[in-house]
Specification:
single chain, 595 residues, mainly beta, Immunoglobulin-like, five-stranded mixed β-sheet, Cu-oxidase_2nd, metal-binding
Amino acid sequence: MFSGLPNYFCLFFLSLLLCLITICLAGDPYIYYDWTVSYITASPLGVKQQVIGINGQFPGPILNVTTNWNVVVNVKNDLDEPMLLTWNGIQQRKDSWQDGVSGTNCPIPAGWNWTYEFQVKDQIGSFFYFPSLSFQRAAGGYGGITINNRKIISLPFATPDGDITLFISDWFIKSHKELRQDIENGVSLRAPDSILFNGLGPYRYDNALVSGGIAYLSVHVEPGKTYRLRVHNVGVSTSLNFRIQNHNLLLVETEGSYTVQQNYTSLDIHVGQSYSFLVTLDQNASSDYYIVASPRFVNSSGWSKSVGVAVLHYSNSQGPASGPLPDPPNESDTFFSMSQARSIRWNVSASAARPNPQGSFRYGEITVTDVFVLHNRPAELIEGKPRTTLSGISYLAPSTPLKLAQQFNVPGVFKLDFPNKMMNRPAKVDTSIINGTYKAFVEIIFQNNDTTVQSYHLDGYAFFVVGMDYGLWTENSRSTYNKWDGVARCTTQVFPGAWTAILVFLDNDGIWNLRAQNLDSWYLGQETYISVVNPETTDKNDVPLPANVIYCGALSPLQKDQAHRVNFSGAPSLKKPIKLIFVAFVLALIGSFMR
């Protein structure tokens, strides 16, 4: 084909083609999962009950990946009702189609399957997934997400000897369907029946408080070694204090950000939050040690049985754990937890997903372009039904997801008129969302007028927690902001009668859920969405409508019957055949050249 050309040109051409093949095959890895979400029978508290498992596991399997990997999860819904999985803290860069909440996706009907495909782009750290609809998280269906550093980026601490994931959660013997029915009828959640560790009930530390025959978690460790513990509060609505008897907790990471390394004897972990600790096994192992998760910000005596207890078991332990539990914080000290929260700071010198230090993004020097002050209130009757609100608006999820309505220009589904501040008008039910400006730097203040701690989460982003205090936020409150090393995370707590301020850079186009993590508040309407549209519509990085999208609501006629009832998870991603076609083309060129 190329006869007569000089040898040096031929060698150059061959080298070029080989480089193209190398580049083509050197993309970010793919990892595949097949999950069946179904009811299974378990006995967390010694009583058989129906829980939601994944592939027969409760909790579900851990997604263990590395920065920039592509994750493909084929989810088969074997429940008796529609469901979605959401990936708490995964930013889904420019791809809110994969977010798995009611505003972005049609539910996966019972008996159907749907495949999520997303990249953990430029992220590290500890996160979790859970079912996002119909109070289902109260029945389980959750599991961990661990995103490891790439090898070229070192950890800001010595490599631990082991990695352990712990899920702590309040738990009810009532089913999630009964709990949501209570909420709909205006019946507040009572004290949970117990606190679970990894789906298991408490160790029998007190015969009067804990029944016999309950399986408990025993964490087996080796003396002298250091372990990384990733702790997630995946519960319904209870803030929990986490502690390990006679052991320090060295905080190193929260929700994708490395923190200034500080020792704590205990830490309050609020609903939806995730933390990583290094724990060194430096005790004499005269016995096992208690691992405790106990409720915070509760006063009722009915909570006395609601303590989760697991066991830390050294390989050379000389006996079972016994005696009193390690003391919790003083419940009457209302400033303890807030002071502790303020002490959690960003490690500005550490590298995370990228080799540049976290602190190179100098958020405190960026001019704020938009301000939203969001007020909540306790549940109230609106149109005769109990509802919760943000700034006087209780979100009504439309039958057509916001993202689909935006894609197909379906009129009347939502309004881009969510107010910047509380309006002087009666509370209402509406599908009102925030009209975000692409690449705006936004200040959001959460004002908690409720009597309980509320956690708030924003999908698609990590935001900077810059301030919190008791009382009413005013513009003078900005003088207290941390403008240097406020931690970047995706879920923050707001204490009762207090405010929390965050800053967020809206550089991720899509429609993103802003919600209360407490299930009772979320279920009754305490959420909204932020629409972020890139005006440069020619941006090739925007992810198009997935080929396997499920249609519902006003777009139901577009849905092909049976289209998503087949198991297609064994099929490769569309991106991989494209690469293979390209490689075949290059090889054909080489073959022609060699003839």
